[in-house]
Amino acid sequence: MKRIKTVIVEDSRLARNELKELIKNHPEIDMVGEAENVDDGVELIEEVKPDLLLLDINMPEKDGFELLEMLDEVPITVFTTAYDEYAIKSFEYNALDYLLKPINEKRFELAIDKVKVKLEASNSETVVNEERLTGSSQIFIKDGEKCWLIKIGDISHLEIVGNYTRVFFQDQRPMLYKSLNQIEGKLPEKHFFRANRQQIINTNFIQELVPWFNGKLKLTMHNGEEVEVSRRQSYLFKDRMSL
């Protein structure tokens, strides 16, 4: 498999050096950068777009959880910390693993094995446009006091609310503070379709489709939400789905 682009964000130089020593035993890992605080870490991650983030939780000013909240696209994350009290919270952020310091070689190896499995699953998807996300790509959403780290493929549909976008997945409907047009350009084209000016749907979540007025279509999604496909988009949808 390809080399795993990896970034370390850790305020302790000693801890960063210890991680780099562990990495030396894994030639498949390509260390592309390190940062000692959240702001520098966010800048580095957005620049190099790593596959793997080794992230400390306790850092001055801002912590590792806040770093994840600042990212548009979250890489595979393995938390590293000296405190076990954050374990449950880390998995609420969908971290792949949680390593307690001091990290021993065997435990680190197990974490890297998990990373390889996850990357292989992601790489199995065909990506037509490398700038687009895949169904297994993760995005972070924070709405009020609640946070989610969700797979793109788990989103049933999205709709405009003012200048922002409401995201529908499972029984949740949080707000993403970006426009629908911004989001549309990154969604995988294979399954996401612009139903009308207000909504984009994931065709995997269509439960029922019926003809509607003036050549339109009406869709019922798995969660019971109804979406009306505009007349122009109905023609495109029928062609795309070979109806």
UniProtKB/TrEMBL annotation:
Pfam families: LytTR, Response_reg. Keywords: Phosphoprotein. InterPro entries: CheY-like_superfamily, LytR-like, LytTR_DNA-bd_dom, Sig_transdc_resp-reg_receiver. It comes from the Bacteria. Residues 139-243 form the HTH LytTR-type domain. The modification 4-aspartylphosphate is found at D56. Signal peptide: none annotated. Residues 5-116 form the Response regulatory domain. The keyword Transmembrane does not apply. This is Response regulator.
